[in-house]
User: Which sequence fits this backbone?
């Protein structure tokens, strides 16, 4: 058997390539600013980027079936505002119930979008664009020119400050979500159905998979995670505003693309999505720390993202070529 060189092993695996990219980024930033790689700073990065990390899981599922969802930030704002104002005006005092309500609102928004796409056969970008405007408008309507600040949120904001077994509770939520989705996509029939629908919709239908139901389910998942993140964002930033996390969908999609998730469906993994989100988080935190001007940060961020995506494309082409060679043997 022919032995593979280390370089070939790295370029033959998307995840391995991303690990190398992440490691190189960490080393460079640490050299430029030694304070970056402290335990407290790393945990703070994870906490502050928990919204992107969690939403990336939902977007992974949506992209795997060949869809897209640009309404997630609006759903998040609608759920966060609803819970924030319920607490502010004394209708809600339980933190747990607040999370349940936010998740339920998000799931309902996802269900509406999913039905429109799955059964109404509406193009995902059109359906979710409509949802983006509708749910953001609902966030403003619910607010009625009001917002909830730290004083109004009472004990709800404490969730993001509390620790369990030495780790912030927000980080535990992220860990639990990743474990669940890794198991879901790797070892369940539903996970296999998601990949099947994205790889070849017609073949999936012929094999007996209810494609419409799978599509509805992934949008409900996306909405559920958006609702969860609405509650988390309200607690983390001790604020509920109708414009909260505006534009977050772009970061989430970028994290998935960096992580090697195909925009056309059928290809992507939870480890890849995690690495993509972490690379984006490190870039976002590192740029101001190394003294890059605020005006130039988006430009540098964009260049770095494109560079990582190019590496992903090269890696994927290498994988495709190797798979083709094996079939021809």
Assistant:
């Amino acid at each position: 058997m022919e032995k593979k060189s280390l370089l070939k092993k790295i370029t033959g695996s998307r995840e391995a390539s991303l690990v190398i990219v992440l490691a190189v980024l960490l080393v460079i930033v640490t050299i430029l600013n030694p304070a970056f790689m402290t335990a407290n700073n790393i945990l703070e990065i994870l906490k502050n980027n928990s919204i992107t990390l969690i939403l990336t899981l939902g977007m992974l599922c949506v992209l795997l079936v060949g869809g897209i969802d640009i309404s997630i930030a609006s759903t998040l704002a609608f759920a966060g505002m609803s819970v924030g104002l319920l607490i502010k005006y004394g209708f809600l005092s339980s933190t747990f119930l607040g999370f349940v309500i936010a998740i339920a609102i998000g799931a309902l928004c996802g269900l509406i979008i999913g039905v429109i796409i799955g059964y109404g056969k509406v193009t995902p970008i059109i359906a979710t664009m409509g949802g983006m405007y509708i749910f953001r408008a609902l966030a403003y309507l619910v607010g009625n020119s009001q917002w909830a600040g730290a004083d109004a949120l009472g004990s709800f904001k404490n969730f993001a400050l509390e620790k369990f077994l030495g780790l912030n509770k927000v980080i535990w939520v992220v860990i639990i979500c990743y474990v669940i989705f890794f198991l879901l996509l790797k070892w369940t029939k539903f996970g296999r159905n998601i990949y099947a629908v994205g790889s070849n919709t017609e073949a999936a239908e012929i094999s007996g998979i209810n494609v419409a139901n799978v599509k509805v389910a992934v949008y409900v998942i996306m909405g559920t995670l958006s609702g969860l993140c609405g509650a988390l964002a309200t607690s983390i930033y001790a604020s509920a505003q109708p414009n909260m996390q505006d534009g977050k969908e772009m970061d989430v999609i970028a994290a998935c693309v960096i992580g090697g998730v195909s925009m056309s469906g059928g290809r992507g993994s939870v480890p890849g999505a995690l690495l993509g989100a972490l690379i984006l988080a490190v870039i976002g935190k590192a740029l101001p720390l190394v003294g890059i001007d605020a005006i130039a940060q988006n430009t540098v961020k964009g260049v770095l993202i494109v560079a990582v995506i190019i590496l992903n494309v090269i890696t994927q082409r290498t994988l495709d070529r190797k798979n083709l060679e094996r079939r021809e043997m």
About this structure: The first strand starts at residue 163 and ends at 164. The domain at 6-318 is CATH 1.10.3470 (ABC transporter involved in vitamin B12 uptake, BtuC).
